[in-house]
Design brief:
Length: about 160
């Protein structure tokens, strides 16, 4: 016996398959992670970048665009009075559990009916942050240059 499909069913089957594929694809979405509240494990989202820098900006313009620096260090042996302004921006931060100490705790051995010491690992939370440090060179109240570096910082809160 030979089976044949009617011509009207082929386009209908193709339409149904395409519709299912479109519905499945439309439901997929990738979103950026959001910043976590303090105390919960996870990863923070990247912070927005401050406005671009331009050589010749005044100290007031830099402060208006970037806010107060994290640190101001006077320049030594500079031909003109100047300072290095440091800005720190956490780009990413991740929390994880790590082995911190090993303690001996009492353990009841059901086979012998006696207590004996047993070693137990105590864990602690470690925060690993990727920090962008931007150092601005300010001479006589004007921006003359800058450099950026990425640093990894580890902390045990």
């Amino acid at each position: 016996m030979v089976r044949s499909s009617s011509p009207s069913r082929r386009p209908l089957a193709a339409t149904v398959l395409l519709s299912i594929a479109a519905l499945l694809g439309a439901g997929c979405e990738t979103t950026a992670p959001t910043a976590r509240s303090s105390g919960s494990a996870g990863t923070t989202a990247a912070a927005p970048q401050p406005p671009p820098l331009k050589v010749g900006m005044t100290a007031e313009q830099v402060r208006a665009a970037w806010g107060e620096p994290s640190e101001i260090v006077p320049l030594e042996n500079a031909p003109k009075p100047g300072e290095t302004w440091r800005y720190r921006q956490v780009l990413r931060s991740t929390d994880r559990q790590v082995a911190a100490t090993v303690e001996e705790v009492p353990f009841f051995d059901p086979l012998t009916g006696a207590y004996r010491p047993q070693k137990e690992i105590r864990q602690s939370q470690e925060t690993i942050s990727i920090v962008q440090v931007t150092e601005l060179i300010m001479l006589e109240g004007q921006l003359v240059g800058w450099k950026r570096s990425l640093n990894e910082e580890r902390a045990f809160p």
